[in-house]
Amino acid sequence: MKKFIQIAFILLISFSVQAQDKKAKSLLDQVTAKVKSYNNIVIDFKYSLNNAKENINQDSKGNVTLKGNQYVLNFMGITKIYDGKKTYTIIPEDEEINISTVNEKDDSAITPSKMLTFFNSGYKYSMNILQNVRGRKIQYIKLIPTDPKDQRKEILLGIDVQTKHIYNLIETGKKGTKTTLTVNSFKTNQPLSKNQFTFVANKYPNYYINKLD
């Protein structure tokens, strides 16, 4: 009888985990569908880096404009433009521009165009806590990288239950570093310039252009 109860308990836990995984998968699928439904997305965000052991606390702000796999990212004084073929990294402090080719089909290449759907492969996931953040219900999903070489211990992905937009992403490294990306503004289907994702060299007449490949 005792053994039967133990087996029943294990089965109940197993069914509960499977149910949570299905809920997590359903919510992630809704987020992906919502992202793909927009013509373009413009995000303002805050990025925080913390490591108590190393006494590191850094906060930065940035913004990114996304359309398909093209993007313009402004972060920490650097601008990155990806036109669908090449990435142009513009560094005003050094008056330098690095040009490189990116293989968007490479799953290991983390790019801004993948940041809103990165969770679709390479992770185990389960439902986590539900929080009320200034009147918004934020459902967290815990993501565990499946690659044992991955230096990230876990990721908590916060999703706005009503809009199905990503609210924040909390990443914990195996060495204790925690990074948090919080979306301050999420705008969609904005009027964009025809040259929004085009690198115009004559805007930077005195810059050194470094072609990496």
UniProtKB/TrEMBL annotation:
Family matches, as CDD domains: LolA
Stretch forming the signal peptide: 1-19
Sorted UniProt keywords: Lipoprotein, Signal
SUPFAM superfamilies: Prokaryotic lipoproteins and lipoprotein localization factors
Protein name: Outer membrane lipoprotein carrier protein LolA
